[in-house]
Each structure stands twice: as C-alpha cells, then as structure tokens.
Design a protein that fits this description.
Elements lengths: L25 H13 L3 H14 L4 H13 L3 H16 L9 H13 L3 H14 L4 H14 L2 H14 L5 H13 L3 H14 L4 H15 L4 H12 L5 H8 L2
Length: 249
C-alpha cells in the first residue's frame, strides 16, 4: 500500500552472472540520460530515456526525466505527455515512488507554460498533497492563483513559499510585490520588495519594480524613482533603459 506522505525509495534489482555480456538496464540508461540532461545535451538525453523505456515501460523516473528534457527544449506538449505517463505509472502501481510529487509539479509547470492555469493549479495542489514542504510549488501555484483566483489566494501561497524558504528566496518577495503593485497596494509592495533587495543588493529586477511601486504611490517619477531605475539598468535589468528614457531624461 502506498503511504503518499512518507514515500520510500525503491530500486530495480539486476541479477545475472558477471561473465555474461548484457545490455544496459532501464535504470542504467535512465542514469546515463540524466547525465546528458545535466550537460544540457537534451536530445541525446531523450534518446537514452526512450531506450530506457523500451526496456521497461513502467519506468516512471525515465518518463519524468524525459519530460524535463522536453521542457528544456520548450516542447511543452511533449513534456506534458511524458509527465502524464509518469503519473499513470505511479497511480496504477502498488509500489512506492521516491519524490512522486515531482511528476505533478513538473506537469503543472508544463501546463503553466501552455497557460492552462486551472490544470496547473490542480497539479500543484496534488504535488503539495504529496509533499507540503517544497517552497517552489507554493511559489508557482501563487503565480497561477494570481492569474485566475485573485490576490488573496496568491498572497497566501507567496507567504507559504517565504515561510518554507526561511525568508531566503528573493523570487518569492519579488513576485509577491508584483501582485501587490498590480492591485495598487504600493506601501505593502515597497515593504515586500525591500526584502528581495536585502537578499541581493544587485537584483536589477527588484530595483525596477521598486521604482514602479514608488512611482505608483507618489504618482510620478521623481529623483528617487530615477535612481532606482538607474540601479536596475546597472544591474542588468533590460527594461529599465526604456523607462529612464521616458521619465528621467
């Protein structure tokens, strides 16, 4: 029986005499594919995952890793199919799977890139049910909630992501601030984005959105706003130059 909140590791057991020559096992091919994946050789990785699945079409790990390779190639439909196959193996098996939440989280990301917000939220929610300690799942669900379910649900997820990351994830603060700016809660946005800058003094995007929050609050681009935009440009945020040309020259 599965214990989905306490997932244990299982492994393929390979038997045979050492003096026989044999082809690589499904898991060995999967491991080789993962090495290609880490080397950004995505097509080679996919070929190895395909070979692994030819050896064992119940290898959920290979389906999941192949999906990640397709995601890296921005082939999101193919990625979603691979993640779904991993999920099917997981759901139809009596075995326990390590980190099964990843299958749903990854499919949620594929749905997100395809702008299927409702399906993405469903997948992220399932991933959280399997493991509620992963900050990135809450962060990505927050972004999707902001699209279709409103500010309150998005902010709740951002806060959970911040909590789970012990306040060390600058992205969570930045994206929370963006949502607050969108609903014109400028004071809250400024306070939130300051946390991102404190974590990374060279975070160009944070300076940019701090400038937007401040200009929204005061209704104009003053010297402080222009200084923030200048910092954003210095630290490599590409859209800062346009705003400087519009408002600061």
């Amino acid at each position: 029986m599965k214990h989905k909140q306490n997932i244990t590791l299982f492994a393929l057991i390979i038997s045979g005499l050492s003096f026989f020559s044999c082809s690589p096992s499904s898991q060995e091919l999967t491991n080789q594919g993962k090495q290609k994946l880490s080397d950004s050789k995505f097509k080679e990785a996919i070929s190895l995952f395909d070979a692994a699945l030819k050896e064992d079409n119940q290898n959920a790990d290979a389906y999941n890793a192949r999906g990640v390779a397709f995601m890296s190639l921005e082939e999101y439909s193919q990625a979603k199919k691979s993640f779904t196959l991993a999920i099917n193996v997981y759901e139809n098996s009596e075995k326990d799977f390590p980190k099964a939440y990843q299958y749903f989280y990854n499919r949620g990301n594929a749905n997100r890139f395809q702008r299927d917000h409702e399906e993405a939220i469903l997948d992220y929610t399932k991933a959280i049910q399997l493991d509620d300690t992963i900050a990135d799942i809450y962060l990505n669900r927050a972004l999707e909630n902001a699209e279709i379910n409103g500010v309150d649900q998005a902010l709740a997820d951002f806060d959970k992501a911040i909590e789970l990351s012990n306040g060390k994830d600058k992205r969570a603060f930045l994206h929370k601030a963006k949502v607050l700016i969108a609903v014109k809660q400028f004071d809250a946005a400024l306070k939130t984005i300051e946390n991102a800058i404190n974590l990374d003094k060279k975070y160009g995007e944070a300076y940019y959105f701090k400038a937007l929050a401040l200009s929204g609050k005061i209704g104009k681009a003053n010297d402080e706003v222009c200084d923030l935009l200048a910092s954003a440009e210095v630290f490599g945020y590409p859209y800062a130059a346009t705003e400087i040309q519009k408002h600061c020259e």
